[in-house]
Every structure is written in structure tokens, then in C-alpha cells.
Amino acid sequence: MSRQHLTDFELMILLAILRIGDEAYGVPIAREIEEIGRRKVLLAAIYTCLDRLEDNGLVTSSYGDPTPERGGRAKRFFEVTGKGLKAVKETQRAFTALWSGIPQLKGGTA
Amino acid sequence: MNPQKLAFGLLRLLAPAHDALAGDLLEQVRRGRSGLWLWRQVIGVLFAGCIRDLREDRLGAFKVVALGWAAMLAFFFIAGDFLAHSGDQTVPRLLSYLGANHAGVLWLERLRYVPATVIGCVLSGWIVGRPVLFYAASVFVALAVAVTAIAWYAAPVPVPHTLFYVVVLALPYWWWSGLLIVPLLIVAGGLWRVASSEPLGRIA
């Protein structure tokens, strides 16, 4: 990957996958971002971002079994790779470093 | 076909690689999400797919859009020339005798161009909607956007200008509505081609 750090949306998606664990597919990822990240998202945007993350080796995906409630379509499960985890940590480090030493942000929850 | 089935049918036709995403949408709809939510998601899928595909193969997209333009212009030149030189004045004259005013006669006279408009736009969408060439939706949507943008730009061109044929034939006497009708006709042509190439198959 040419970029060193993740975009905020990429970071949100990777964190959502890590929070969900083994059952991370489109619907719970979107729900996690909407409920915890408090951000409205389109599933298309999530899949576009996930495809990009997969191309960059930050996530891997695998298909489950087709289920009747999904019209016979399989779920696509996502998992964060070692490279993805490293990118999350590096982004966290960069953000934390940028956060520190800003007087306007001290003493409040923003 | 109800709107929900139409949405899944479009997804199946235009974004066949997004089967897992279609499953996610169906799962959400069955849990109570509204039809409006579904359509917003489907439009998002198609739009995102178009942008990604056009970015991935810009030259290929350019070639196919150029092909659509060439087909449309060739048709409009032929049809425009034919209609300009062999126009049957019988109906307008008859209307004039019957007391229709000048504006009304002129308007009806111009209605002769409507079939050419419809055929030209649908034909160009149909030509570029070949799924074997490219991800079809991306191309005919790109063509529709390009034609609308150029038609908007070309509005004040003088009569001998090449683009006059596009403006006159694509947007005859209904300027503002034409800007909506033209892209819709192109998209309809593209959808027609894709649907005739591949059956709708499994939908919700």
C-alpha cells in the first residue's frame, strides 16, 4: 500500500470488524458504524471500501453458506489481516501523537 | 413487478458481482427496512460501481462512450437531413386551414422530430449497453451524463453548428424536460440491451 495511514472511514470499518469478530459481514459492520460510530453509511460505500482494503491486503474475505432469509445468497465474512492490524495501530499512534499537546482539547470530551 | 423486485432485478442485472451485498439488502428489508431505504442503497451500489469501473478502465470507457456518441450523431445527421428535406407539410397546412394558430402549427410540426429523438437516444444506449464490452451500466450512464452535459453546453449554438443536430433532435421544444428525457432514454436503451442479453434470473 502506498499510503502510510488509513482514512477515517477505513479505520472505522477495520475497527468494526475487529469488534464484531467472526460474524463480521456487511450488515453488522454497517450497524456497528451507525450505532457506535454514529455515522450514517450506505452498504455500497462499505463494500467499496472493503474491496479496496482487500486489494491492499488489509482484510481477507470468505463466503459462508447460502441462507433462505437472504434469498439463497451467501454472506461474505471479513477478517482483518496482520497487515491490517498493523495499519490500525500505526494510525492510532499517529492520531494520538497529533492529539497530544493541543490546549483547546484538554479537559473536555469534545 | 413491484418496486422491491425491480430494485433487486436491477442489482442482479447491473451489478452481478454484488451477490453478497444483495443478500445483505434483502436481509435488512425482511427485518423491516423501507422501500425508500432499499432504493437509496441500490442507487448507491450502482453509482459506486460506475465510478469504480470508469476509474479502473478510463480508456476503455472513453472508447465505448465515443462509440455511443458516434452512433447518436450519425443517426441524428441522417434523420435530421431526412426530416428537414422531406417533411410532409400536409398536417400543418390542414391544421392551419382549420384555424390553429402559428405557434400551435409550429409545435405540431416539430412533433415530427420526436420519434427521431427517441430512436437516436435509445439506439445509442442500446449500442453501448453490450455487457461483453464493459460493465454496461457504467458506460451507458456515462454516455447519458456526457450527452446531457454537452447538450446543456450547446444550447446557444447557431444552426450550421454540428451540435445543432443534437440540440434540435435531442431536445425539441421541451428544453428543460429534454434534459431529463434524453438521459432517461439512453439509460432505457442500455437497460433494454442488458436485459435482452441476460435474463433477469433470480430476484428477491
How would you portray this structure in words?
The complex is a heterodimer of chains A (110) and B (204). Chain A starts with 7 loop residues before the first helix and ends in an 11-residue tail after the last helix. Chain A has 110 residues and is mostly helical. In chain A, 30% of the residues are buried. Helices cover 49% and strands 9% of the residues of chain A. Chain A is elongated. Chain B is mainly alpha-helical and 204 residues long. Helices cover 76% and strands 0% of the residues of chain B. Chain B has helices at 3-14, 19-30, 35-56, 58-85, 90-97, 102-110, 114-128, 136-153, 163-170, 175-197. The chains are: A mainly alpha (110), B mainly alpha (204). Chains A and B meet through helix 2 and helix 3 of A and helix 2 and helix 3 of B.
Blueprint of the fold:
The complex is a heterodimer of chains A (110) and B (204).
Chain A: H1 8-20, H2 26-35, H3 43-55, E1 59-63, E2 76-80, H4 82-99
Antiparallel strand pairs in A: 1-2
Chain B: H1 3-14, H2 19-30, H3 35-56, H4 58-85, H5 90-97, H6 102-110, H7 114-128, H8 136-153, H9 163-170, H10 175-197
Helix pairs in contact in B: 1-3, 3-8, 4-7, 4-8, 5-6, 7-8, 7-10, 8-10
Secondary structure: number of strands of chain A: 2
Q: pLDDT under 50 segments of chain A (min length 5)?
A: none
Helix content of chain B: over 70%
Which two chains form the greatest contact, residue counts included? A-B, 21 and 24 residues
Mean pLDDT of chain A: 89
Query: How much of the polypeptide of chain A forms β-strand, as a percent range?
Result: 5-15%
Helix content of chain A: 40-55%
Note the main sheet of chain A.
Answer: 2 strands, antiparallel
Treating each run of at least 4 consecutive H or I residues as one helix, how many helices of chain A?
4
* Tally of separate helices of chain B: 10
Q: Tell me which oligomeric state these chains represent.
A: heterodimer
**Count of distinct strands of chain B:** 0
Please describe the biggest sheet of chain B, giving its number of strands, its sense, and whether it closes into a barrel: none
What is the succession of H and E elements of chain A? HHHEEH
Q: Whole-number average pLDDT of chain B?
A: 72
Structural class of chain A: mainly alpha
Distance between the termini of chain B: 11 Å
Going across the major beta sheet of chain A, what is the strand order? 1-2
Straight-line distance between termini of chain A: 32 Å
The radius of gyration of chain B is 20 Å
